[in-house]
Every structure is written in structure tokens, then in C-alpha cells.
Amino acid sequence: MELPQHPRIAPLTISSVLALNLPAVHGVTVAATVLEALAVMAKHDVGAVLVLDGERVAGIFCERDYARLALVGAGIADVTSVSQVMTTCAVFATPPQTVQSCLDLMNKKRLQHLPVLEDGKPLALLSMVDLLNETIAHYERISQAHALDQRIMFLQGTYSC
Fold first, then answer.
1. How far apart are CA 59 and CA 125, in angstroms?
2. Of 1, 9, 28, 35, nearest in space to 125 by CA
3. Which domains does the chain have, with CATH numbers?
4. Could you report the per-residue pLDDT of 42-79, keeping only the tens digit for each?
């Protein structure tokens, strides 16, 4: 399903989402421990961090990965490397992509977070909630633009039969 459009409202792309609010990119190195990654997540109040191998994104470590580690009892957070439990990244977004295509991709691949890369470097880590909130805001902007169009069209003296 395509998002509604309006001539005065720009299409909803990843670059337009980032222009509204460029979230900081929080990450850890592949050598970091799970405990270090959890500390970064707690410090910045985020649900996931990028796992970086130099400037290359190696994966994402999120709350779900930690829950799996705790569930199987596979290790202790202060000695387990984040690279052992992270989710590897095979899917990325780029700024020109539409939010709708990213949401479709995340739904299809069952992802909660999607890294945004530009020229191979991480720009942001967007969650499905971030993208859904921006989609709702986009619908509201279009609805307001249509309501304004209706008011203008039916102002007394501007519309004739």
C-alpha cells in the first residue's frame, strides 16, 4: 500500500525523516562485551546499538539478542563478546529510499531496527517504531493539507457553481 500524497507535502523518504530529527548513532566495536553494549544502551536509553568493525557495520545488538543470551544461559554478559550474540546485518537503508519500502522490508525480514548507510558509513539506526511514528505524522500533515484545501475552495466568494 502506498502512502497518500499531496502536492505541497514532500514524499516520505529516509532522508526527510533524518532531516526532521537525525538520531545519534550509538555503537560498540566487535570486540566489546555484552555488558559494555548494555551500558551504552542504558546510557543513551536506546534499544539497540550498531556493532562496528572499524567503520563497517558488522551487526546490530539489541535487547532481543540479550534476552536470547540470558534464556539459553550461553554466557555471562561481562565476558561474552557482543559479536557472538549480535544479529548480522544483511539489510540496510539509504537516504533516498521511501519509508514505506523500508517498513515493507523490515516486516518481510522480521527486523526491529534498520541501519541507514551513506557511502558505506552509518548515518542512523532507525527502529520500526521510529518509522511508524513518522508515517503517522506524514498522514497527519497530508490530512491537514487536504482540510486547508477544502477551506480555501469553499470560502465565500471563491467557489462558484
1. 11
2. 28
3. 14-153 (3.10.580.10)
4. 999 999 999 999 888 999 999 888 887 776 665 677 78
**Does residue 61 contact residue 109 with C-beta atoms inside 8 Å?**
no
pLDDT digits (tens, 9 = 90+) for 15-46: 999 988 777 789 999 999 999 999 999 999 99
- Grid coordinates of 93: 537503508
Q: What percent of the chain has pLDDT over 90?
A: 52
State the Cα–Cα distance between residues 46 and 120, nearest whole angstrom: 23
Q: What is the pTM of this model?
A: 0.81
35 three-class SS: helix
In the prediction, which pLDDT does 40 show? 95
